[in-house]
Specification:
Strand order of the largest sheet: 3-2-1-4-6-5
Mean pLDDT: 90
Number of domains: 3
CATH architecture of the largest domain: 3-Layer(aba) Sandwich
CATH topology of the largest domain: Rossmann fold
Oligomer: single chain
Low-confidence stretches: none
Radius of gyration: 32 Å
Number of helices: 14
CATH class of the largest domain: Alpha Beta
Helix content: 25-40%
Shape: elongated
Largest sheet: 6 strands, mixed
Length: about 475
């Protein structure tokens, strides 16, 4: 049988199935899904496939219950496991505030993933065919798309840990209908497919036939060929994107940072994809538009230090000196420090698991030199044994070690290139009215250790390692 041979060759070429696979087969009851089930059942002996038939009743048509029962009977007659579920799509549409098509798609995938989990299946097969591919590509062109959209429906893709396969993409709709007739399959006709209320149906029933009539009688095959070429380009570009992203991205607990020049020097195609991949870490693909990528590129290429960009879903990006940082929606800068007392000796905990420890040692017993997270000060110059830890306050001044005098703490942060959104999170160690240490950055000049120092105040700042995403 020509169609069976064609599908078998397509499965082999695209690597859709291997021996012993357990496959969830999505069967609505239409010609596409009936043909898919029959073809996979025919191949199951050779490939030793275990098939589970999955049917979702959308509760949209009065004949839906009859169709569900008939699909169940066919599964039983072929000794296949049958799983079904009924969902009120109209109610779901209202609850989610989405279209009926989108509600049906969400419910369908949720059901298929749940069924795959239940039976331990690794693959989910659907009956998408060449005509579906042509419609998808053309629809994407009309909406405005790039290379990824031109690839249309992929022969296989990964989602939520499962592999979705489309073995019938190589067949035209008329070939599938012929296959059903030749094998005495009795599929149902979904009357909604004949309505022109849905955009896709208008494309199928009106636009494509007109284009075939006036411009190219083999338009669907041409669009299918375009999709195959675009899919190959897409795969190659995605691999390059992942490799470059791993090389230049600096993931943190609450953000992803890049050196500005690392992005500026990329070819535009790769730059766009890396920015898109970054946003996908925090947003669903539907929330990311082409204009958001253009806005990010504008920030990188033309922005100034401190410029920010608010993106969908609470995501925001900030340019700080030589860095672009994209913050996730949960980032709130919640490491701000309300005033905390630090006894000497003693230890104080700070937001985010940070700690500051204080101790006193004789100068002769000082065994370690100061470092970024360790400060040594002349203890006898400090007026109180009770220090305080706080964030900056309006008008606060600091006399950095090595400078000629005091300056506003704001100006000091700017000099040190501390990102604006992080400045409230920097611990200031204060004695009386004086900042004696900007933790992790610099001590105050008047309290430095000198030849006259006898006792040393040792402050240690502990910052937990942040897990990368």
């Amino acid at each position: 049988m020509a169609q069976l041979k064609k599908v078998k060759e397509y499965i082999s070429r695209e690597g859709l199935l291997k021996k012993g696979d357990k496959v969830i087969v999505a069967v609505s009851g239409g010609p596409d899904s009936f043909a898919l089930l029959h073809i996979l059942h025919e191949l199951s002996r050779e490939l030793k496939l275990e098939l589970i038939v999955a049917h979702l009743n959308h509760s949209l048509r009065k004949e839906a219950e009859v169709e569900e029962a008939e699909v169940g009977k066919i599964a039983l007659s072929w000794s296949l496991v049958f799983e079904s579920k009924t969902v009120d799509i109209k109610r779901l549409k209202k609850q989610k505030g989405i279209s009926e098509e989108e509600a049906g798609r969400l419910a369908r995938y949720e059901f298929l993933f749940d069924t795959a989990n239940k039976y331990g299946a690794s693959k989910i097969a659907s009956g998408h065919h060449l005509d579906d591919q042509a419609e998808t590509v053309l629809l994407n062109v009309l909406r405005g798309t790039g290379v990824d959209g031109l690839a249309g429906i992929l022969p296989k893709s990964r989602r939520k840990g499962f592999t979705l396969i489309r073995p019938l993409l190589c067949l035209r709709r008329r070939e599938i209908e012929q296959y059903c007739r030749e094998n005495d399959l009795q599929p149902f006709t979904d009357s909604s497919n004949l309505e022109t209320d849905y955009t896709r149906n208008k494309l199928r029933l009106e636009l494509i036939p007109e284009l075939e009539k006036r411009f190219n009688p083999r338009l669907r095959e041409a669009l299918f060929g375009l999709a195959e070429l675009a899919a190959a380009d897409r795969h190659y570009l995605q691999r390059l994107t992942r490799e470059k992203y791993l090389e230049i991205a600096r993931p943190r607990r609450d953000s992803i940072a890049f050196r500005r020049n690392d992005l500026i020097n990329l070819p535009p195609a790769l730059k766009n994809r890396i920015l898109h991949l970054t946003l996908k870490m925090y947003l669903s693909p539907g929330q990311i538009g082409r204009h958001h990528i253009h806005q990010l590129r504008g920030l990188i290429e033309k922005g100034s230090t401190g410029d920010e960009l608010i993106l969908p879903g609470g995501v925001w990006a900030c340019l700080d000196y030589n860095n672009l940082t994209v913050y996730n929606p949960g980032y709130s800068g919640d490491l701000n420090i309300t005033e905390i007392t630090l006894e000497v000796p003693g230890q104080a905990g700070l937001p985010g698991g940070r700690k500051i420890k204080a101790g006193v040692v004789d100068i002769d017993h000082l065994s370690r030199r100061p470092g970024k997270y360790r400060a040594c000060l002349d203890y006898d110059l400090i007026p109180t044994k009770f220090l305080k830890i706080c964030s900056r306050w309006p008008g606060a001044r600091f006399y950095p070690q090595g400078s000629k005098g005091s300056k506003k703490i704001k100006d000091f942060f700017i000099d040190q290139k501390v990102p604006r959104q992080n400045r409230e999170n920097v611990p200031l160690i204060v004695a009386g009215d004086d900042i004696i240490w900007v933790a992790g950055i610099r001590i105050a000049h008047p309290y430095r250790v000198t030849d006259r120092t006898k006792r040393v105040l040792v402050l240690e700042y502990t910052v937990p390692k942040l897990p990368s995403k």
